[in-house]
Amino acid sequence: MTESRLHLPETSVPGGGTDIAVEDVHFGYPGRPVLRGVDLRIGAGELVALIGLNGCGKSTLLRLAAGLLRPSAGRVLLGGDDPARLSRRAAARRVALLHQSAPAVPGMTVRQLVRQGRYAARGPLGMLREGDDAVCRRALADVGVADWADRPVDSLSGGERQRVRLAMALAQDTRVLLLDEPTTYLDLRHQLEVLRTVVRLRVERGLTVVMVLHDLAHAARFAERLVALRDGRVAADGPPAEVVTPELLADVLGVAGRVGRDPEGGWPVCYPDHPIAVESDNRFQ
Ligand SMILES: Nc1ncnc2c1ncn2[C@@H]1O[C@H](COP(=O)(O)OP(=O)(O)OP(=O)(O)O)[C@@H](O)[C@H]1O
């Protein structure tokens, strides 16, 4: 594959409207172009997995969608508005972003950290109101860590911290959830638990979820739509059964391998063999 996009259907959600629109977005850091014309529409209620090689711009795209960065060209709309122009408080009410890592203040308890999700939604001067504690408790329960409320965050393992940070994002109680590698540090059991929780919450609460996943098996199984970035653009976009092919493995992920089907669930299953060279976006550095 050189110029081509592997699979790029019209994306629309029947009756759902668009929660995130990314229109011909360009973005780079000083001396480092990253996105070179990304077009993407994510409908209300969709569950999308974003995949691609390290450094291809997945986190950058989430940060643009959350309004933490502004595109150098093109535009991003979140519920019809430019998220970078919303106040921090207004943006925090619309979108929660689980970052890849967030430092914990020494001595802060899990309860205090998760409450930060509510403070973000209320703004710097916002007082926690009645009901905020219930939202925090629910968020902790959602990820199965209700018993940890009084534990210092810095006493938790990497995987435990990851689940608490997911609870913090859920405590924002937004309809749009952006999850940057939500399963990092988690053992297989907890990876499945977190992903099943995301799928459940998305249905129960009508969430729109975009999650960056490196594990293609999980992406293919749990997301209904895969978006692959390569060379600063969307290289493939569609249902896992159509998008996950040996060509995707080779051209987007740099892996030679085979693709089969789960005998019971029917979702694509990859059998990666060996790494191969990909035309890297380094060429436009
Ligand atoms: N603050 C920054 N300043 C300069 N360059 C940055 C900054 N943040 C990211 N980059 C660079 O931009 C590129 C895209 O980074 P980004 O974090 O979006 O990639 P990613 O696809 O999420 O990668 P990974 O899979 O490794 O998490 C990378 O080359 C990275 O080094």
UniProtKB/TrEMBL annotation:
Annotated ranges, domain ABC transporter: 20-256
Keywords tagged on the record: ATP-binding, Cell membrane, Ion transport, Iron, Iron transport, Membrane, Nucleotide-binding, Transport
Protein topology in the membrane: Peripheral membrane protein
InterPro entries: AAA+_ATPase, ABC_transporter-like_ATP-bd, ABC_transporter-like_CS, P-loop_NTPase, Siderophore_ABC-ATPase
Places the protein is found: Cell membrane
PROSITE patterns listed in its UniProt record: ABC_TRANSPORTER_1 (PS00211), ABC_TRANSPORTER_2 (PS50893)
GO molecular function: ATP binding
Pfam family, one: ABC_tran
Highest taxon listed in the record's lineage: Bacteria
Ranges that cross the membrane: none
Stated name of the protein: ABC transporter ATP-binding protein
Taxonomic source organism: Streptomyces macrosporus
